[in-house]
């Protein structure tokens, strides 16, 4: 091979390599050149990318672990809930917040499955689909729902027997406020308590959901005297709601206050507190009196589980025996709506009576406040710090941009005020204290 032929041969070899490489590499997508209209219309439709199928999503509140308010998080779930026989699909509009949900967040409510789990015992909404064998409901029905858990989300699949038709004129917020509070109050007062005219009842936490429900139900019976405990700022509200004698549990000894008015004691006491307060309640009963205990609110003292409060409540737990009850001529009952989840025939009878009372104007849920799912931490804080008068409701609809802007402005104002306080010149006394 001559010296002249070698460079030419190398050049030819390089060209062949480049061609081979170009053939091996994937060709990038190229824009089609402009073609006549006839040719464009004849272009094969197969070249167009088929649109992706939309996946159904819905918002849900999920308890990620036990602890503070931040443990309940807003998540987006994918896929439509599957309906089983006898179930209905409900588009949820409003959900109720209960003490059981606060206890569940701290790991103190044994009816709530372990995290991650969606809480929520009650809600209201509209039926969107029916499962097989559902005959007493139809699409479009407005219903209130009671379930063991899982209702804090935009859509839920529940047994049709767990739903109850809303009366005309009832709002979704009111409907979400009825199941837990009013069923609890009704069954304690009338099934256990056998409430009759001219009797006396003690309602603890009278400004809460169960407290207001119990007070309203007491007023459906002639000449019932209601003693209600609440902080002083709530006395006007509960008095207007039907409480006969208000007591500030923070500054007054409710036992001595009741004895002043009713020396013989009371006929019925509803105890949501537990611990030493249950002992006091039993001693406050008249002969033939009835104590109905339905909670352990004394264990709930902060965002996270307070082991000292839990231990103290259980250590002071009330106990008795058949002989003592016989000698005292008193009865003690325990109520827990969470353990009645297999008694929906009984529950349905109670709900029917409650909805009839609502239609008659004899009871009406008091909604304290509403919060969007994004604000669940604020909602729980309001209830746990005992700032509510009535029911705290969660709304499933996303928060509007206008509301977000207003909240942001309020936060900015608060921050400005804090900064102004920091910048204020300190007094001579303040300087001395620092030194």
From TrEMBL:
One of its GO terms (cellular component) is mitochondrial outer membrane. SUPFAM superfamilies: GroES-like, NAD(P)-binding Rossmann-fold domains. It holds the Pfam family ADH_zinc_N_2. One of its GO terms (molecular function) is zinc ion binding. Residues 1-11, 33-48 have a biased composition (Low complexity). Residues 1-51, 390-435 are annotated as: Disordered. GO terms for biological process: negative regulation of mitochondrial fusion. Belongs to the zinc-containing alcohol dehydrogenase family. Quinone oxidoreductase subfamily. This is Enoyl reductase (ER) domain-containing protein. It comes from Synaphobranchus kaupii (Kaup's arrowtooth eel).
